[in-house]
Every structure is written in C-alpha cells, then in structure tokens.
Amino acid sequence: MSSYPPQYADAGHPATPSDDSNSDTIEMANLEDIVVTPNPHKRQEYHTPYAQDDHGVEESYSDDDDDEGGRALLGSSDRVRGRERLPGPLGVWPQVKDIVIETGPTLLLTTVGLLFTGELLNNVSHWKAMERIEELIIIIPVVLNLKGNLEMNLSARLGTAANMGDLDKPSTRRSLILGNLTLLQVQATAVSFIAAVVAFTLGRILPRSASEPSAPMSSNETLADATNLLFSLAARQAKRPHHLPEKDPGGVTEFIMTAASAMSAACLSSIILGSFMCGLIVLCRKYGRDPDNIAPPIAGCLGDLVTLCLLGAVSTIYITFVQTPLPLIMICVLAAAAVGWTVVTRRNPLVKELLWEGWTPLFAAMIISSGTGIVLDMYVTKYEGFALLAVVISGLPGSVGSIFISRLSTALHAAAIKLSSLPTSSDDFTQKPPSHQPSSKLVMITLLCVTFPVEIIFLGVLRAFGWLKFPILFVIFSVVFFCIAVVVSLVIAKYLTELLWRRKLDPDMYALPIHSALVDLVGQLLLVACFEIVSRLGLSIKASR
C-alpha cells in the first residue's frame, strides 16, 4: 500500500494516512476552505506541507454535505500558496475567466497536436527500419501508451508541488525537480523494455500478411490509418506497401533492435520532455498560472509526439548497425544507467518512495487500451472518418479529465495539510468552516463549456478542409455524444480520485493512467453509437479521396 498522502513526505516526518479519522475526514466534502493556487505576488513565509505531524480531527467534518465537499478551486486568481487565506470570497466570473484562459488554448493546441501525431505516425511507419522490423510498428502504440502516462504523472506531481508552494524555495525546488527527472529515467527505461517484450511477443503470435502495393493514400486516409495505429495494440499492416522480409527464426536480432530503439527513444524523450514540463510548471508558478490547468494535457500530447519522433530517428540510425553489437551495447548501457538513476533516486528523501508506486495502473491502462484497440479495429473500416473523429472524442475528454484529476488531487493534498495542522480540540473548528469556493459541480460545468467550442472548431476544420463531409444532423449527434463523453470523463475523474484517496493511494500516481484508458474506451463506444444512429437514419459520412 502506498505511503500517502503526500507523495513527497519529509524524510524525518513521513506523512501517512494511518490515522483513520484524518483519512476519512479528508474527502471531497471538506475542500471548500482550502486555497492552493499560485499567487506569486504574496511573499509570506514558506511552508513545507510534507513535514506536518498528524493530529486528530473532529468527526463533525465527516458529516458535511456532499455537494459542499466537492469544492475544488476554480481559478488561479483566488488560490494562493499553502495555507494562505483570502480576505474574502471572489465572484464566479473572475474565476471562470481564469480557467477558460488557461484551459481553452491548451486543449485546442493539444487537439491539433494529436492530429500532427497521427500524420507523423503514418510517415514514420513507412521508414526503412519500420518496414524491415515489424516489431517496431507494433511497439509504437504500446510505448506511447506507457510513456505518455509517465509524463502525465510527472506533470500532476509537480503541479501539486507547485500549488502547495514546494517549488518556491530554491533548494526544495532543485531537489524535487532533479529527483523527479531521475525517477522518470528509471520508469522510462523499465516501461520501454517491457513494451519491447510485449511487441516482440505480439510479433511472434500475430499472423504475418504482406499486402499488395496500394495506391497513394489521401491526406485523410493517411491520418485515419495513422490514428488507427496509434490506438491499436496490434499492428495493422493492410496499407503497408512493401512485402515483409523473412523473420529471423529465433527473433533475437529483432528483439535487440526493438528494445534498443524503444529504450533509447524513451530515455531521450524523458530528458527532453521531462525538462520541458518542469520548466513549464515553474513558469506557471512564477507568472501566477495554475499548472493543473495547463500541464497534464500538454504532457500527454507532447509525450506522444516527442517519443514518436525520437523512436523513428533512433531506429533509423540503429538499423544501419543491426548486424553489429551496437544495439546490444546500448541496451546494456541504458540498463546500467537505470541502475545508477535508481541509486540516485533512492538517496533523494522527497521522491524515494515513488520508486515503488504507480506501476500497477500503468500496466492496467495498457490492458484496458487493448479493448480500445479492438473497438477501433472493428469499426475503423466500417465507417468512414471513424478514426479521425476518434482523436477528439477520446483525446479531448481525456485531457479535460486529467485537468480535473490534477485539480482535485491538489485540493486533497491541501486539505490533508490543513486538517493535520488543526488542534486536536478547539471550539473554533467544531463547526464546518464557511464556504468561500465554488463547488466541484461548477468546475465540471466550466470545463464542459470550455471543451464545447473546441469540438465545434474541430468539426468546422474537418469540413472546411474537405477531410470529412457530414450532414448537419451528424454534427448534432456527434456534439451530443461528445458532451456525454466529457461528462463521463469528469465523473470518472471525480469518483476515481475519491476512491484512490480513501484507499490511501496518491491520485497523482494512480489516477491518470486508469482514467485515460477508461475514457478512451468509453469515447470509442460512444462514437460507435453515434455512427450507428446516423447510419440507421439513412445518413452517411464521406471522407475525401
């Protein structure tokens, strides 16, 4: 069981939820008086939230109204460091304005990034290395699934640390960032090697079918085929224009090449993207923006894009040395480096406990994603434009949910610190404190409203560029089902975060992978329902040729 909360326990004061009264009290019902979003203009004393001793908390908190307990803070303008208090409540509109400014452009850019990732995937899949070693094609969705979740977990952890004020003190900031980067190297090495094993196993058991040369694909077909590859755990080879070479009977060469490429790409991606995300979160803190609203979607989107670019580049280099010991040497070097990073991470008291946490949801998410791949595989050829629309109806709700999870997790950590600092008995705290913050329902409604125009813009772009031609009735149904997907994503985010917290598991480590996989699956099923309804009404969607 995870030692939680919080994730960065002080070495001398390990904070754990062993106190049942404390852990049961810190629920969504008691977040209305916790303010944690950055306010860099306030220069009050720095608080280290992970060095607090647990105290008993009056049981009257556990009887609070459920709705009032979902008070996750809506905007960055009214949340401040640690346990700082506001002089008075703010209106809803300024908070809504801030969250729209922070999340709207972020979600729009990440949606565009998903499309670019799909286009890049198709191009990479036709490179020499990918055509020669089919396991490199199979490993793409596996390694992207695992690696993207690592980056989102990193952004969630650092977002919580930033909002709690842990990145304000230079020494603590340096220790947290370096510790998380070394941890990310260890995780990236491990998951990329496991992805190589999975890809090699699938390559051995999946039937080989060399397709005949096909005509060049249009831009839409290219994007749809690429998106299909991105989601599916099995290699789709129907549109690969070259016959596959004979396999090495033992498969040793293919496995070494695949493992070396995946591990090198994942480690390089962790250095580049991990450093970028750390810098982004520090900048958000510096300029008074809430990293919980910005970092998780960017981490998921750029994680796919950067890892895919590096995987294509590294495999292209290694393929020229495939018959030499170089790939095997690189595996040994990276494995030895991972051991060294493990030692360094264990010596960092702020992150050493994280070495053993968060592995189960990563692989559970990979299993759930296989169901998404099956759904996509069944319907991508049945309905034109299915894979293209799947990018948004799965990706965008998942991004919104990741934002909500990060915000709720931050609020829960803040509540843990606030309640642990209360005296064991005081008349001042026997009654529920006054409510100053909007409820989590308002947060959910705001996030839903932010995603709505992004979906409309996306459909408009598809129509304007001629990638898809669809009747107005389809637009109505797709928007309705998209809104359902967003609502489902937010509901899953809320209850999954609460469940993990009650089980003393850190949502920053456990929630995002499972949530992302579930929302992908739900989004695919809702899109299937949308296409089925429209087709039964006699309408059809045409993709450009």
From TrEMBL:
Location in the cell: Membrane
Source superkingdom: Eukaryota
InterPro entries: SLC41_membr_dom, SLC41_membr_dom_sf, SLC41A1-3
Cellular component annotations (GO), alphabetically ordered: plasma membrane
Keywords, ordered alphabetically: Ion transport, Magnesium, Membrane, Transmembrane, Transmembrane helix, Transport
Chain segments annotated as transmembrane: 177-202, 255-283, 295-319, 325-344, 356-380, 386-405, 442-466, 472-496
Record's bilayer topology term: Multi-pass membrane protein
Region (Disordered): 1-82
Ranges of biased composition (kind: Basic and acidic residues): 42-58
Signal peptide range: none
Any one Gene Ontology molecular-function term assigned to this protein's record: monoatomic cation transmembrane transporter activity
Chief place where the protein resides: membrane
Domain SLC41A/MgtE integral membrane: 140-311, 392-530
Pfam families: MgtE
Family named by the database record: Belongs to the SLC41A transporter family.
Protein name in the entry: Mg transporter
Species, as recorded: Cristinia sonorae
